[in-house]
Every structure is written in C-alpha cells, then in structure tokens.
Amino acid sequence: MIHLKTSRGRTRFGKMKIRLVSLIATLLLIVAGLIGWARWLGFPPIAAAASFGYYTSGTTGYDISYPQCSSSSLPTGAFGVIGATGGRAFTANSCLASEYSWVQNGTTTAPSLYMNLNYPAGSTASEGNSGPAGTCAKSNKACFAYNYGYNAAAYAFARGASSTMWWLDIETGNSWSKTQSLNDDVIEGATDYIQQHGATAGVYSTAYMWKTIAGSSFRPGMIPIPGGAQVGTLVTANWIPGGSSSSCAGVAPLYTSGQVWLAQYSSSPFDADYAC
Question: Are 35 and 118 in the same domain?
Fold first, then answer.
C-alpha cells in the first residue's frame, strides 16, 4: 500500500482538494464580476419563459381579425390578439371595435394587437414618400421602404384601438421586394414607430417566411434609419405557428436572441395560441 503523505503530514490528495476549492472560488468571483459588468453596461438579464410579461405562461388565447367579422360568436380564452388591419398595410379591419370589445370583456389579459405589413406597392406605395428617413429621392428605395413601414404602423395605431403589445404579421402572401434588405427597412420602420410610441413590438411569421422575406440574420430593432442612426432596440418577442394546446416544444425563434412568446395552433374554427 502506498501512503501519499508529505513531510508536513498533509496528503497530496488534501493539497489537490484545497487547490480545487480555490480554483472554484476564483471562477465564481470571475462570473460574479462578469454579471456585474453586464448589468453596468446595460445588458438585460436572461428571462425565463414565465417572465416574458404580457401573457401568463401556460394559458391559451385566440387571434381574430377581419375574416371573423361575420362570426356570430367569438371564442373565449385567457387572452386575445386582434388584427387592426385588413390583411395588408394601410387597410382597416372593419369590425375592429367589436372584436376589441370582446377581448376587453371576455379575457383576463389586456388586448394585444397585430398589423399586416408588406413592401410599398400599388396604390399605397406613395405612403413611403416622406417620413423619418426624409423626403425620398426617386432612386432611394431604402428611404421609401423605411418610411412606408413607419407610416403603416402609424396608420394601424390610428384605427381606434390601443395596446402596449403590437405584433407585425410578416407573411409571403403579401407583396415583398426580392431585395431582403429593403424588406428589412420596412419592418424596421414599423418596429421603430411601435417602440417610439410606448409599446412592445413582436414578430409573427414562420421560419421559412421570415428567411425568405427578411433573411435569417436580420434582427428587427437593430438597424439604423437609412442615412441616419439606429433608434430601436432588439425585438425579442416571436409568435410562431406550429405549437399545440399544451406546449411550445419544438417551436424555435425566428432569429438569434428571439424568444417564442406565443405558439399558434389550429383550433377550428379559430386559430388558438399557447403562451410559452
């Protein structure tokens, strides 16, 4: 039998144990210091799913808009998300007032809203002529795109319903540019308007649609006004189709640092949403 004893009567194992404890203590101090520096620099703390805030984790709600205007009855749930627009930017949901009233009176969470968005085209393209990016030269497509998104959000806000939670509905069914950076400018313009008017912005889309329209690396809130400065902050809230009535398992965010707040699933005749 080999005895691992030093001349001072302390085993080598004991020395190793002391060194290990010292190393762990040093690492804990380093981690604590990094957390302190992160807070001092203004980085937000990591949030658990239940602390996302607007929706209570584990509850179920519904989303409705102009397609449900003719419905004789509306679903009940813990929350409701209402479309303020009529399928495209600068169009109105004709029954917004009644649907908004349903959410106010029939759910336990304050109403949240969403707006449809698209690239400037057709009869509403001129809505991008001027705005925070300035009065656009005909060749400055980025200027048109940003102003269009910003003004589209202003139009949606003016429909007579209010909320501190607004979602941007980004789908390939609407018109978008083949140049993703221009689509990003549209989305950024709408994001900036929402944030500047005291609300939280979120994005509704599928992974495929988002990659096709905006590109996989775009993170709304993080690009500047064309020719100007960045005024937004990162949009983390994602609302994704493909969930279930009791879980957000397998539903991934749209981009880096995104967080799945709501997972949409089919619950005929309405779409239902599970709060993650």
Answer: no
